[in-house]
Design brief:
Elements lengths: L1 E7 L5 H15 L2 E5 L2 E5 L2 H14 L6 E8 L24
Antiparallel strand pairs: 1-3, 1-4, 2-3
C-alpha cells in the first residue's frame, strides 16, 4: 500500500534539529521524499507498523507533528501532480 507521511518537527533547539534529521533518515529508508517534509512509501502492513513505531519513538509529541495517510493499493488514480519535480513510479526501479 502507498502511505504518505508528513511531519513537522520543532527545530528551535539542537534536540529538535536532531529529531528532524532522524525522522527524515528513517523515512528515506522506506520511501521517496516528494517535498521537504513529505515522503511517499510503498509498504506492506508489517513495514507500515514498524516505520510508524520507529517514527513515534523519535518525535516529541508535545512539540512535533506526524501524519500518515494510507492511500492503499489503488493509489495511482488518487494522485495528481502539477509543477516541477516530475513524479516517479513508486513500484519502479529505485536507484540509490
Amino acid at each position: 500500500m502507498l502511505v504518505l507521511i508528513t511531519y513537522d518537527v520543532n527545530t528551535e533547539d539542537a534536540a529538535g534539529r536532531k529529531r528532524l534529521r532522524r525522522v527524515a533518515k528513517k523515512c528515506v529508508n522506506y520511501g521517496q521524499r516528494v517535498q521537504n517534509s513529505v515522503f511517499e512509501c510503498l509498504l506492506d502492513p508489517a513495514q507500515y507498523k514498524l516505520l510508524q513505531t520507529e517514527l513515534l519513538a523519535v518525535i516529541d509529541p508535545e512539540k512535533d507533528s506526524l501524519r500518515f495517510y494510507q492511500l492503499g493499493n489503488s493509489y495511482r488514480n488518487k494522485i495528481e501532480h502539477f509543477g516541477v519535480k516530475a513524479s516517479y513510479e513508486p513500484e519502479g526501479v529505485l536507484l540509490v
